[in-house]
Amino acid sequence: MRTEMGDSRFGHQWCFLLFLVCLLLLKAEGGSIPITIVETAKAKGAVCLDGSPPAYHMVEGSGSGINNWLVHMEGGGWCGDIESCLERKDTYKGSSSKMEKIMGFSGLLGEKQASNPDFYNWNRIKIKYCDGSSFTGDVETVDPKNQLYFRGDRIWQAVIDDLLAKGMKNAQNAILSGCSAGGLAAILHCDRFKSLLPATAKVGCVSDAGYFIHGKDVAGGFEIENFFGRIVGLHGSVKSLPPSCTSKMKPEMCFFPQYVAQSMETPLFVLNPAYDFWQLKNIMAPSAVDPKGTWKSCKFDITKCSADQLKTVQDYRTQFLNALSSGAGSKPANGYFIDSCYAHCQSGATATWFDSKSPQVNKTKIGTAVGDWFFNRAKIEKIDCPYPCNPTCVKVDSDS
C-alpha cells in the first residue's frame, strides 16, 4: 500500500492497522471462507476443463442447523464448442488453480440471522463451477490436441460424495440450489440429490435464474435449442440428464426445465425474474438472429426498448409464464417467486435476498418466500404484475 505519510514508521504502522481492520471485516462478513480442493476426485476422473481437481467453499453448521445442509452451485454460462471451452480453460471458470482461495457468503448463504433467518446456521456450501456444462458432462476420452476434460457430472458426484462423508449422510434438512447455470444444475440433479440422502430427510431444490425456457426468438425460431444442443453434444451430457425426460425427447430438450420439471419427484422452488436479462439477451434476441443489432440497445437496457420492442418483451414474459405453468407450476409441492425485475440471480446478495429494500411481490421478500415454502409455512406462488410496475426492484450484479 502506498502512503503519503512523512514518517515511514508511522506509515508502516498505519498500513498494518488497516490490514488488521480488513481482516476483521472479512471475518465479520464471512469473507474468509477457505477453498477446499477435492484432491481425491482426480482418481475418479472428476476434474475441471484443464484437468485440475474440483473445489468448493464450506461453512459448518452450528446449533439447530448442525444436521441441515444447503449446497449451492455457482453459475457462469456454458461452453458449447472447443474454442469457447479453451477460453475458459485457464480461468477460474475452467481451473481450480485459478480460483480465489477465500471468499465471502451472503444472501441465502449468509451467516447473519437477521439477514438469513432460516438458513444462517446450516452447513453452507458453494460448489465452484469449472466444467461449462451445468455439471452434466462425462466424456472419457481427452483429445491430446486441446487437453480439455468434459467431466461436469463426475465433478458433481465427487463433491457430493465428499460432503456426504463430512456429515451430509446424516442430513435432516437439505437444499440443493444454484444460480444461473448452477440454477439449471439444481433442477437437473435434484432427484438424484434426494436419492443420496436419508429417506427421512426433508429435501428441496431451489433454482435461482435457472429456469431457461424453450422460448421463441425475435426471428420466430428457437436458436437457444441449437445452443443447448451443442453443449449436450460436446460434453456428452445425455448420460447424466434425467432419464424421465430423455426417454421422451431429444437430450437437448432436457436442458429446458419446463420439460424436466414435469416428471420431477422432489419439491422445487423457482426464483426467476420474468424479465431475466440473460434470457432476453440470449433466448429472446440472441445475436445470431439479430445481425444488424436492432435489439442490442433494448436487450441491454429494458428502459431503452421502443414501444414495439417492449410489446415483444411482454410477449416473452407470457412465454415464460406458460413454461412455468406447464412445468414447475404443475406440481402442488413446488413454489415460485417471479418478480418483474430486469435482473439475473437474486439469492446470492443480501440486497436482493432479505434486505429492508429487497424486491417484494405481494409484500413478500425472496428470503421469506423460500423459507416459507421449504418449511411449509405457506403456499408460495408469487407472480408479479408486468414491467414496470414493481418499485422495489433493485439493480444488483449477478452472483454467478
TrEMBL record:
Pfam families the record matches: PAE
EC number: 3.1.1.-
One GO location term (cellular component): plant-type cell wall
Signal in keyword set: yes
Any one Gene Ontology molecular-function term assigned to this protein's record: pectin acetylesterase activity
InterPro entries xrefs: PAE/NOTUM
Major localization class: secreted
Localization annotation: Secreted, Cell wall
Keywords: Cell wall, Cell wall biogenesis/degradation, Hydrolase, Secreted, Signal
Keyword Secreted: yes
GO biological process: cell wall organization
Listed transmembrane segments: none
Signal peptide positions on this chain: 1-30
Annotated function: Hydrolyzes acetyl esters in homogalacturonan regions of pectin. In type I primary cell wall, galacturonic acid residues of pectin can be acetylated at the O-2 and O-3 positions. Decreasing the degree of acetylation of pectin gels in vitro alters their physical properties.
Protein family (similarity comment): Belongs to the pectinacetylesterase family.
Stated name of the protein: Pectin acetylesterase
